[in-house]
Structures are given as C-alpha cells and as structure tokens.
Amino acid sequence: MKVLVVSGATRENIDSVRFITNFSTGATGKKISECLDQNNFQVFHLYGESSKRNLNIAGESFCSFKSLNEKLKEKLREKFDVIIMNAAISDYSVDFLEINQRSYEPFEIDKIDSSSEVKINLKRNFKLLNRLREYSLNKNIKIIAFKLTSNANSIEISTKVNKVFESDVDLVIHNDLSEISLEKHIGKVFDSPQSLIGEFETKDELCDEILKFVRGS
Prior knowledge:
The chain has helices at 27-38, 65-75, 132-135, 154-165, 203-215, and strands spanning 2-9, 12-13, 19-20, 42-48, 59-62, 82-88, 92-99, 102-104, 118-124, 142-149, 171-180, 185-192, 195-200. The protein is an alpha/beta fold. It has one domain (2-90, 127-215): Rossmann fold (3-Layer(aba) Sandwich), CATH 3.40.50. Helix 1 packs across helix 5 (203-215).
C-alpha cells in the first residue's frame, strides 16, 4: 500500500533573504512516515524546507504554497492509496510589495534595504484539500487531514472539524496548541463531523490511530 505523507511549513518569499512562515517543524510528519515505513507501507514524504525528515525514506521538499501545489499535482499522478496532510500550509501568499510607496513583485528587489518603508500585500490561497481528489489518479484515495486550533473551546473545535470534512476527507485529526508539549501530543480522531472514533496523548498513540485507519483502508 502506498502512502503520501505531507508535512512541515510552507515559506512565502518576500525577497531573497526574508519569508513568511509558521512554527511547524515537521516532527509529527517525520514520526508518522517512520511509523508507516516500519510497518511495511510504501511511503513517500513531501516535506517543507528545513523540516524534520528521515533520510532513509523516499521524499522531496517543497517551499511555497505554489511549490507544494505543483508537487502534489505531480506526485498524485502516481497511484497512492492514502494521503496524510499534516503540513502547515499558508492561507496567504505575497501578492506584491510597497517599498517607499512603489510597487514591486516578490524577488523583484534582491534584498530590501532596512531603511525602507515596506508594506506587504497578501493574497488568499485556495484550499489544497479541496483539490486532492481532482489531482489524484486514484479517485478513491483515502485522505487524512489535520486541524490545529489554539485555545479553542468545544464548540469552536466542532465547527472547525466540520469545516474540514466539507473538503471530502475521510479522517480528521484534531490538536489544540494548548495541549501540545515535548511530553504530550493530545488529540482526537473523527471519521465524520460528529463521530469521534479515537483519542491519543502522545505521538506514538497518534501513529497507532493512523495505522488502524490505514490498515482498514
């Protein structure tokens, strides 16, 4: 069985030395890819630049939202059975810059002078989850999506998990930032908007939940 694991952060370039990103290290995706590999699944790992990965597992890096979109299109021309979307994907990319009241494209200036007045204008990215089946050779591919919240209450969590299911995914794994630490990685597993089928407190237990689902696919 072939599994595509996607993890780590996108980087949205401003100039040749600056970019917008988030705190994701890709550690969870690395752990998931290793767990699947050790259990004899054929794994390919798409990972963000500077994200954690296992060099013994086949993989390729991505940089920006645009880069990730292109690489997903390319890889999903192969027949994968499962895709695990654990990447921290930017909701916005840089549209253009205003530097000292003049407009520039990203990279049009190699390095912005630190004395400049700069405004960064962003554009909203589309939801990659909505396009995975369209890109996929296997239209019955199983899609596992992750949803991270921050200090959310139960109503907010339910609303956000339900929203992810609108992208035609098969499993949603929810974490809240307040429940993630070096020792703990607490979360819940849903197979439909109102159907909680599992809970976990560590990355090892998360991998066990993913293995159960993938083996049943």
